Amino acid sequence: MSIRGLIQALIFALACGNALAQKAGANEPQRVLRYAFPIAETGFDPVQISDLYSRTVAAGIFDAPLAFDFLARPFRMKPNTIAAMPEISEDFRTFTFRIKPGIYFADDPAFKGQKRELVAEDYVYTLKRHYDPRWNSPNLYRLEAAKIVGLSELRKQVIKDKKPFPYDQPVEGLRALDRYTLQVKLADPSPRFHQEVMTDHSSFGAMAREVVEAYGDKIMEHPVGTGAFRLAEWRRSSRIVLERNPGYREHLYDEQAPADDARSQAIAAQLKGRRMPMLDRVEIVIIEESQPRWLSFLNAQTDLMERLPNEFAPVAVPNDKLAPNPPSAASRWTARRWWTSRWPRCSTRTTRWSAATRRRRWRCAARSRWPTTSTRRSAWCASRSRSPRRRRSRR
């Protein structure tokens, strides 16, 4: 599995399984995971997205046929929306997936008030969308590398004729044998096809044709899947809110931990049998600058920090030892004291500044306007330490 896929899996696992909470009660407040992205998302259409953070969100909304058992070592796959592991021919060219009945898409106006069940044709349609030139899929290369029989040729013909993609045209390599049976045929043997393609929720998770046709070019704003969460709020490049999908199927936590891993065994035992997802909401904000993202984590405004900025490593892991988590009130003081300790000392005689001057120095340093050389720094400090009236009198 790729590093990108591993990160997505970790975030999705946190959203679904790392609640570390007591059993839900009638009056229990909502369990919310607050998370900050350092880079803005682009949208949530699995066919059109390729960036990590859009895919991280999409992985909680859409479902691929297979999933990974993340505690297992070595890793193993397990059925997700299929009833059992796929049937694979001896030459590794034919893969048959049998969809589990009773899985439904999240409610959406595109379904006109009807419950919409997941069927094999939804995966056929989803994979074909990657070949449609209209969507310019950045993940098409993964399917073309697998060489699904007939689809690349169909795409070339569509481009040549300059016609809309014929989704209803049968293709030998991708068929729904019946309502719940999906068959994929490859031109060349590929023993890992199901592992590399059919486990990726964010790129190849099932989509309903009615939803895509209803929203058209705005499909990036309207992700509708069968996953544990659905999009509740989206302010582009600012805030993303996922909420529990009320129609999500009954899915119980059942990870298998290795016998020689005591920590994983404890996690599996603690969460075994819990219904997924274990969270009610996931609130994501976009904080591109590392300093405010770090402070938001220290002040308990976010619960998870995916990557520790290098400049804050001395605070988080001083002398290569994990620092204790300070109280919220002391966190701001600790972070600011660390920043001020890194400021170069001024060579001027003015060592006691007023509150206004300290605030001004803090703002300027935070904006990276602090001079680098000692000569310029001394002149800068001296000029900033004088009041405007005093400077005018000296001129």
Molecular structure report:
The chain is built from 15 helices and ten strands. The chain has 395 residues and is α+β, with helices and mostly antiparallel strands. It has three domains: 3-286, 3-Layer(aba) Sandwich (D-Maltodextrin-Binding Protein, domain 2); 290-340, no CATH class; 354-394, no CATH class. A four-stranded mixed β-sheet has the order 1-10-9-8, with no helix packed on it. Strand 8 and strand 9 (239-244) form a beta hairpin. Helix 1 (3-17) runs parallel beside helix 2 (52-58). It is globular, with a radius of gyration of 27 Å. The termini are far apart.
Oligomeric status of the shown chains?
single chain
Whole-number mean pLDDT? 83
* Helix/strand structural class: alpha+beta
At the first level of CATH, the class of the largest domain is Alpha Beta
The major pleated sheet works out as:
4 strands, mixed
Write a brief structural summary:
Helix content is 34%, strand content 13%.
